[in-house]
Write a structure and sequence with these properties.
By secondary structure, the chain is an alpha+beta fold. The chain folds into 3 domains: 105 residues, Arc Repressor Mutant, subunit A (Orthogonal Bundle), CATH 1.10.10; 125 residues, Rossmann fold, CATH 3.40.50.10610; 57 residues. 45% of the residues lie in helices and 21% in strands. The strands form 3 sheets. Strands 9, 10, 11, 12, 13 and 14 form a 6-stranded mixed β-sheet that branches. Strands 4-3-2-1-8 form a 5-stranded antiparallel β-sheet, with helices on one face. It is globular.
Length: 319
């Protein structure tokens, strides 16, 4: 059976030599895929340039610049689809190392159309997929308004440094499909899914949106907006900005509450984490710096507990 390497929102089929983003194959060439496969298989470990060159150009003598070009292509794709340009680390004069999301290995069903058995691993920071909003107007020509709204929301959320936002070309593959949010979370490797609807009629627009925790199905945020449609583009901007302003703090609270539910067996470490959360939630720079000290002490007391707190750590670093 072919091996499937899953990491973040990606699946790498080593037998076919194809990197998938969600359900869609990417444009990454075979040499770049061969390099990526070797780096991902040895996640966290340095891979010398000579070994990488032999994997992508077996039996050929090539310049290091060829390797540099292919690695740049991988980084560019990661940056475009998952804000992950830093997932491939350069080791000067030595080689490269994969330092991105955790990697899981599974097998692809050898039958035609068989699906990968590996579930995409959640990244080490809060992640969200914004699905196409449903057009409830009964007029297919109004799709542009709903799609434009989603584009604005994706763009706005992507500016939040501590949040990973799945690219539009991946989420829009779900347009017109009835798919359970838990399945979407597994397929795209995200914790949160934002979905909504738009109804435009008689000079008014109603936009409804809801954010769902894909791992539990619980609602994190929901809102409805009713506006006059005199200035349709101004309305689009206003609703998108209002939604972004409400979603960001809701996600912060959800992430902190999720960490609170993970209690350490070491009560001292648990106490330090709770105290750190209070400082983080204050939003004051001096208290955030103090929270980092508390968290570092908690990690010293219980390193295993730290593995359950990546999202809290990301929030603190970018507050």
């Amino acid at each position: 059976m072919a091996t499937i390497l899953a990491f973040g929102p990606f699946r790498l089929d080593t037998d076919a030599g194809i990197l998938f983003h969600g359900l869609e194959p990417t444009s990454l060439g075979q040499r770049a895929v061969a390099l990526l496969a070797l780096l991902v298989e040895r996640a966290g470990a340095p891979v010398p340039k000579a070994v990488l060159i032999e994997a992508a150009w077996p039996g050929h003598a090539i310049e290091d610049s060829n390797l540099t070009v292919q690695i740049a292509a991988v980084r560019r794709l990661f940056e475009e689809l998952a804000a992950g340009a830093c997932w491939i680390e350069t080791l000067p004069r030595r080689g490269y190392r994969y330092v991105g999301p955790a990697v899981t290995a599974g097998n692809r069903d050898p039958t035609p159309g068989g699906a990968a058995t590996a579930t995409l691993t959640l990244p080490d920071k809060p992640s969200v997929a914004v699905l196409p909003f449903s057009n409830l107007s009964g007029d297919p020509e109004q799709d542009y308004f709903a799609d434009g709204m989603v584009d604005d929301i994706i763009t706005g959320l992507a500016r939040i440094k501590w949040l990973l936002v799945i690219a539009r070309n991946s989420t829009f593959t779900y347009k017109g499909r009835a798919v359970d949010v838990k399945q979407i979370g597994r397929e795209l490797g995200v914790r949160y899914v934002l979905e909504g609807s738009v109804r435009r009629a008689c000079g008014h627009v109603r936009v409804s949106g809801q954010m769902i925790d894909a791992s539990t199905g619980a609602h994190v945020w929901a809102e409805r907006y009713d506006r006059s449609s005199d200035d349709i583009f101004g309305l689009q901007d206003a609703i998108a900005m209002s939604a972004i302003g409400a979603i960001a703090p809701s996600l912060r609270r959800a992430e902190i509450e999720r960490v609170k539910r993970r209690r350490s067996d070491n009560l001292d470490a648990y106490d330090l984490v709770l105290r750190a959360q209070l400082d983080v939630d204050s939003g004051m720079p001096e208290r955030v710096r103090r929270a980092l000290v508390l968290l570092e002490r908690a990690i010293e007391l219980d390193p295993a507990y730290a593995q359950g707190m990546p999202s809290l750590a990301v929030i603190m670093c970018h507050s």
